[in-house]
Amino acid sequence: MIRIGIILGSTRPGRNGEQVARWVLEHASRRTDAVFELVDLLDHPLPHLDEPMPPAYGQYKNEHTKAWAAKIASFDGFVMVTPEYNHSTSGVLKNAIDYLYAEWNHKAFGIVSYGSVGGARAAEHLRLIAGELKLADVRTNVALSLFTDFHDFSKLAAGERQVAALTTMLDEVVAWSRALAPLRQAA
């Protein structure tokens, strides 16, 4: 069975991301073509990258890195839930991504972004980062606007259009994760 990690890419107090990630998990859990797990970065506290060797070598020294590597290696694909901070993704998500290399390779990922312009710039930034890590990004992006998809900028109220986009994105992530399996096995 394909395993997809839903990575909650914000640790900020009062974050909107938790309700967004739970919304993704709620819809994803109704599916029978994959197993989905919420991965909250609050549960994986990683200091600013503190490994002496580049991640591409896979020679992890710290226990927090080894635990993070094992968690990410256990998945076939991902949905990254990201806020947009200063026209980019969150620093904590970027740091968590930067810790590893091979554990990301040959896996698919989709993006659920949120912010004043739907987190579009954060999503595009993640796509650039992903290419270097041999992550295959799917086309469909769920972009939640703080103005139209939240009440009072803080309570998620995603409509049917967003649910349809989420369904399409999950279809793509599962299909691409399955298609990339031979590359993961060969590696």
UniProtKB/TrEMBL annotation:
State the source organism's domain of life. Bacteria
Spell out the molecular function terms from Gene Ontology.
FMN binding; oxidoreductase activity
Entry's Gene3D superfamilies? 3.40.50.360
The residues covered by the NADPH-dependent FMN reductase-like domain are 3-146
- Which InterPro entries does its entry note? Flavoprotein-like_sf, FMN_Rdtase-like_dom, NAD(P)H-dep_reductase
User: What SUPFAM superfamilies does the entry give?
Assistant: Flavoproteins
Quote the cellular component terms of the Gene Ontology held in the record.
cytosol
In terms of Pfam families, this protein maps to: FMN_red
Question: Under which name does UniProt file this protein?
Answer: NAD(P)H-dependent oxidoreductase
Give the originating organism.
Microbispora cellulosiformans
